[in-house]
Amino acid sequence: MAEIINLRMARKARARSDNQAQAEASRARHGRSKHERQAAEAEIARIARTVEGARREREPEQGEDEG
Q1: 1, 32, 55, 60: least CB-packed within 10 angstroms?
Q2: Dist CA 64 CA 66 (whole Å)
């Protein structure tokens, strides 16, 4: 005799697995690797240091007087 299954639960399980497969494909297509994220952060930090070093006047820190 065949095993009795709940069709509603089977449909939901199949939908979940389809969604997981689609999410995995999307992550692979649009995600960035750890190395790429670290390289981007290092580049942003380098640009920020360059801009800060090129300022003509430094803005006073919080709590400092200008005089």
Answers
A1: 1
A2: 7
Pairwise CA distance, residues 57 & 53, whole Å: 10
How many whole angstroms separate alpha carbon 10 and alpha carbon 55?
Answer: 64
* Residue 51, amino acid: V
Euclidean distance between CA atoms 46 and 38, whole angstroms: 12
Sign of CA dihedral 30, 34, 39, 43: positive
User: Is the Cβ–Cβ distance between 45 and 52 less than 8 Å?
Assistant: no
Q: Which amino acid is at 11?
A: R
Q: What is the pLDDT of residues 21-47, one digit of tens each?
A: 999 999 888 888 889 999 999 999 999
Confirm whether pTM is higher than 0.85. Answer: no
